[in-house]
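Batch manifest line 261
LIGAND: 2-acetamido-2-deoxy-beta-D-glucopyranose
JOB: complex structure
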Amino acid sequence: MESRLPHLTYCVTLLPAAPAPCRHWLAALVGLVLGVGITALLAGVIILAIQRSGADEQPQTPPTAGDPFSERSNCLPFSEEHCLVSRDAWHAAPSGRVATLATPVDTVIVQQTTTHTCATREQCISATRKIQEFHMGKENNWSDIGYNFLVGGDGLVYSGRGWDIVGAHTKTWNNKSIGVGVIGSFSEVAAFPWQLSAMKGLLAWGVSKGKLTADYGVMGASQVQDTDSPGQRLMQDLRAWKHWRNYTYTTSTLHTAHGGT
Ligand SMILES: *[C@@H]1O[C@H](CO)[C@@H](O)[C@H](O)[C@H]1NC(C)=O
Ligand SMILES: *[C@@H]1O[C@H](CO)[C@@H](O)[C@H](O)[C@H]1NC(C)=O
Ligand SMILES: *[C@@H]1O[C@H](CO)[C@@H](O)[C@H](O)[C@H]1NC(C)=O
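JOB STATUS: finished
ARTIFACT:
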């Protein structure tokens, strides 16, 4: 008995001679195999694409997460997750003449720094120093960096003028608010989740220190003056906060823009 299989081409040449129902049946079988194969291929491509787009989403923790305070010398922990980089640690220039802020205040004003974002402590220190140079330089001639605090894309808070000094961030509001500069530009791009979490942690700390009232309100600068800051995208996040204050300036309550001393 011949047990070896015939050559494939031999079988294929016989196909046209097969009765039509057999050919149709074989064609259907080939179609089914091809169909299953193509479906599997497409599914694979789609799964890969979904995984790829997931990889583009922002990760939920900052690069230094895990051991929150390793690499964080000169960073004062103010909660289990957050810490404050002192002025010394970011090599701040000494401030000039400043006024004392009467605390507690009931308002926090959020600004964007309108700079590139920063993702590492080194980059955030560099950004903070440049902002101070700009605020104290010819253009503004303020006595110090304008913000009371800055929040980096590295998830750390950088000490500006601190809780007890009047800032230069939002004219006419400086002497009755804490000004937080979120490092970056947020008209289209969202702040990192850990950046927002650091800001919330900072403000909770402010309440516990008696620098902010427990029912303090948070506003974006664009709610009190004619400015894009802190950017549409960041405003969207602020509006979702429990402490967000639904207030918008009118022409009669509007004074001159960004500024201070
Ligand atoms: C900057 O401010 C200081 C202190 O107010 C003042 O003495 C100085 O003249 C100012 N410099 C410029 C260039 O405006
Ligand atoms: C803030 O400054 C303005 C203008 O100098 C003044 O009218 C207001 O009383 C001050 N507010 C506080 C809380 O010091
Ligand atoms: C904010 O206030 C305005 C008018 O005062 C109101 O129309 C709007 O619905 C409020 N928005 C929220 C989110 O409460």
